[in-house]
Amino acid sequence: MRVEVENIPSPCISVCRMSTRTGWCEGCFRTRDEIAGWSQAGDGGKRQVWDLIEQRIATLQAQP
Q: Does the predicted model carry a pTM greater than 0.90?
């Protein structure tokens, strides 16, 4: 049996500053735990983090 592995890219854009207001990186919108666990995460975990990132960006854009 062959397992298909997706090549899910890291959201890192080399802007590594943690926001004191949100607790997310200002470049990739991940938490410290998400950043630390990225390389060990499976495809499902990486997709889940990407979903959270999209939600976080939408939340920030909706704020006045």
A: no
